[in-house]
């Protein structure tokens, strides 16, 4: 299993736009083949900093999502809201 964390720093005046965008696509992401779960975390002290936390069956399925039509809609719209470049990391679950 792969855990994907993506830190997103959103422009202060676009936070609500980002939350609405994520909410609109949440079910599409969660329903993508190989996605076990996806959630949005918001920093307690910096409300314009978010982390997406998702679980994938494999890196291949994560990459298939990243090359999909749905990602092609979500990512460009999300990038328009950035205050800083995104930071992404993938991890393999070793002990649960």
Automatic annotation (TrEMBL):
InterPro entries: ABM_dom (IPR007138), Dimeric_a/b-barrel (IPR011008). Keywords: Monooxygenase, Oxidoreductase. One of its GO terms (molecular function) is monooxygenase activity. It comes from Reichenbachiella agariperforans. Pfam families: ABM. This is Quinol monooxygenase YgiN. Residues 2-91 form the ABM domain. PROSITE patterns: ABM.
